[in-house]
Design a protein that fits this description.
The structure is a homodimer.
Chain A: H1 2-7, H2 20-26, E1 43-45, E2 48-50, H3 55-62, H4 73-77, H5 83-97, E3 104-105, H6 117-129, H7 146-159, E4 170-173, H8 176-187, E5 193-197, H9 201-209, E6 216-217, E7 222-223, E8 226-230, E9 249-253, H10 265-278, E10 281-285, E11 310-315, H11 317-320, E12 328-331, H12 344-355, H13 361-370, H14 373-399, E13 403-406, E14 412-416, H15 422-433, E15 435-436, E16 438-439, E17 450-454, H16 459-473
Parallel strand pairs in A: 3-15, 5-8, 5-9, 9-10, 10-11
Antiparallel strand pairs in A: 1-2, 4-12, 6-7, 11-12, 13-14, 14-17, 16-17
Helix pairs in contact in A: 2-5, 6-13, 8-9, 8-12, 14-16
Pfam family, one (chains A, B): Aminotran_1_2
Cofactor (chains A, B): pyridoxal 5'-phosphate
Keywords (chains A, B): Aminotransferase, Pyridoxal phosphate, Transferase
């Protein structure tokens, strides 16, 4: 490989299909794999710009030994690197180019404010206890500690009196992204899926990995066999279910990442009725529910009948700044059955016990602290802080005539740039205002013409970013 | 479901194929699913005792609604519940039966001693820092923090000067069990695998889940398409490679769980040569390497050529008592290529960035502390403590004429009960000595006739367990 790497000083730029190398390279030391540009040149394909060193063929030539193991064909279908590492790479390249610029990151949606003390104290106390004979504990239940599962049951009771969520139906995990992969592993290769378009990329990418899809179609920018439910201003960001085909699984996120749109009770009733009619399973992503301040449902289980058709995933990441601490959960109701009557919860339990070993006990102590009265109050203050950030961004961007969506019940502002390429706008904002955003088309073709601005940031950075955006687009 | 559950008061006992219900039931509140016995009666099938309520058929009858989603057929192939939850369930049932007995748990292999202060302090400091503006961090790299990856590179350098492991090849994770599942997701359904028999159950179970296997054969107690490499006293616990067929993947664990056997340098050279000849990929599980006190290799990368054929997984669980903290890592060398020349590390990077979001930053701070000079010393003391436990157990068990294996370089004692059923011996030790062990056959048919005794325990419990075992078998 050392030899192969050296050969790479002469690099070429490959097509969209090899764009995974871009994000890959960010994982490597500069010496191990490199293109000859600090930031690879780009090829344009329908508004998505991707780039790559032509690594594979060179490696094949130069390396003397390869195993006889065939590469998983599903991985070869995957397009450009997973979105957020790619954004991170572009950010790093920008900083390298402008070492003196004050780059403000409103891209990946990463929390920035400290974890409230009352919650951090819970984790400190657990770390301390683990160093004592009385307080030490080893393996916990793969499904999560009983106390935390019980606290999450109460959390649901607080959200709505009729959710019916039991502690035994709550599976504590290291985060929603990880649970999505485990759910896909459970569903297997033979299910069909639908996603909102645009949507959080992990739904689609994990589906491709598991072999649920056909190949990628460059024209439509869609994978074969996935149904993309367009969510745009025209349909108030709620899919047209009347024209949607039946799929086995429907991924649905509300408040939505990236659009910030939040489904009303009536819309969710429609969704549940649609799933029930079709015998589909909804995977409902409620990771942003705490940002809801109107009467939109905070859990799918507010909707009668949802227990027979819906799994809910959620996370402490955006509730309490746990993006790095890693703690989430998934609810699988006992009533949810496969076609043969077999309870889905049993297979999910099997996945959790076989391919997972419990969330970190320190993180779980933090989760318990989050759900205490003081912890809850602290989380509400944290969320209020970020929502004030949203207001500042929305005000700035609308003041220069841009149209925004989302924001009301979510930490994301979805800014419309009609007729423009998302990646172009992303590049312009980065180059000229030194602000990292996320190109809407990174969330699916339905996001083209939009840019997502995250409201996670220190206040002074948000205020400055707002000023820069006003200047840039004013 | 409430109705369905009530119907279960009249339960029947199903065949081996439904035994997954047993472990499943441990995840549920008693009210949600129950058999009419506190501990289900058992049916005997070739030495494995399993039991089940006939849940599925009743549920199907009584529940009014089922989705039209077909259950993943691979899950239906899975046999009795994942081993360790099952052991936990039996332990709980025993405690319920003998509330006054002092049950000693030497089953699951769970660490019992406090995390050394120097390491716990690292985690406390991180939890504290997360509550400050300066110390807060959100999402880390999915591959792990740079400082920890660099420290693990140094760790390999310390093990052996020629491993060649680079920081960029180390992927930090929440544990080896989770990485096994992610590796399987990467390999996909079309690979063939070989495992040591007996072996850690997660290799086989994750393989079945991913669809790499055929059905289970009750006669051989093996899944079709998996090659079981028998490891017994007859072959010094090293598989007969001359008679082994080629498979794509070879899972190999040394020091071995459960047998405690440790491959010599010569044996590992044979293994690498075998993989190289066949173009196979070795997944080398080195989770117990720190227990090696002779000159057996502590990493597969001590073997020349291993970088072209081997992935190594490892974990802080048994190094520092991190079973509940959750921290491990996987090394994928750049030289490891699929048949088409595509680097395996690229696909593993893709799995990690798409289906994982980094190990807890607090756990990673603990990992860094582990690898500091003081942390390393503390881990060595911890390991020495457990190895003294091993001596006590081995001495007791051999003093009454039983033959043991393992122990020398591992925290497990593999006790031979020739001609007896592992589950029978397990049940006898639990019933008469109130000691939880692990039946060897739970690790595969090759473990039949053995029981694994874990040396993880407080000294006084180990001493008492040793006494009870002497009495029981003396």
């Amino acid at each position: 490989m050392a030899m192969a790497s050296q050969a790479l000083v002469s690099s070429t730029f490959a097509n969209v299909n090899s764009a995974k190398d871009v994000s890959f390279s960010s994982a490597f030391s500069p010496s191990s794999l490199r293109c000859n540009d600090a930031m690879p040149r780009m090829t344009v394909s329908r508004g998505i710009r991707v780039a790559s060193c032509a690594v594979e063929s060179l490696e094949k030539e130069k390396t003397s030994y390869a195993t006889k193991v065939t590469r998983n064909a599903n991985f070869a279908k995957l397009q450009a690197g997973y979105l957020f590492p790619e954004i991170g790479r572009r950010r790093a390249a920008h900083i390298a180019k402008y070492p003196d610029a004050k780059v403000i990151s409103l891209g990946i949606g990463d929390t920035t404010e400290p974890i409230p003390s009352v919650i951090a104290e819970g984790m400190k106390a657990k770390a301390q206890a683990l160093s004592t004979l009385e307080g030490y504990s080893g393996y916990g239940a793969e499904q999560g500690e009983g106390s935390l599962r019980a606290a999450l049951q109460k959390f649901y009771l607080k959200l709505h009196p009729d959710t019916g969520v039991k502690a035994s139906e709550v599976f504590v995990s290291d985060g929603a992204k990880c649970d999505i992969a485990r759910l896909q592993m459970m569903f297997g290769a033979d299910v069909t899926i639908a996603v909102q378009d645009p949507s959080y990329p992990a739904y689609v990418d994990s589906s491709v990995m598991m072999g649920q899809t056909g190949g990628y179609e460059a024209d439509s920018q869609q994978y074969n066999k996935i149904h993309y439910m367009k969510c745009t201003p025209e349909n108030d960001f709620f899919p047209d279910l009347a024209s949607a085909p039946r799929t086995d699984i429907i991924f649905f996120c509300s408040p939505n990442n990236p659009t910030g749109a939040t489904a009303t009770k009536k819309q969710l009733e429609e969704l549940v009725a649609f799933a029930k009619k079709n015998g589909s399973i909804i995977v409902y992503d409620a990771a942003y529910s705490i940002y809801i301040s109107d009467d939109s449902p905070k859990t799918i289980y507010e909707i009668p009948g949802a227990r027979e058709v819906a799994i809910e995933i959620s996370s402490f990441s955006k509730f309490a700044g746990f993006t790095g601490v890693r703690l989430g959960w998934t609810v699988v109701p006992e009533e949810l059955l496969y076609a043969d009557g077999f309870p889905v919860i049993k297979d999910f339990n099997r996945v959790m016990t076989t391919s997972f070993n419990g969330a970190s006990n320190i993180a779980q102590a933090g989760g318990l602290a989050c759900l205490s009265d003081d912890g809850w109050k602290a989380m509400e203050e944290l969320v209020a802080f970020y929502k004030k950030n949203v207001e500042i961004i929305v005000e700035a961007v609308t003041s220069v005539g841009l149209t925004t969506y989302g924001g009301k019940n979510a930490p994301y502002v979805w800014v419309h740039f009609p007729g423009q390429s998302s990646w172009d706008v992303f590049a312009k904002i980065l180059e000229e205002a030194h602000i990292v955003t996320t190109p809407g088309s990174g969330f699916g073709p339905g996001g083209e013409g939009f840019v997502r601005i995250s409201a996670f940031g220190h206040r002074e950075n948000i205020v400055e970013a707002a000023e820069r955006l006003k200047k840039l687009f004013g």
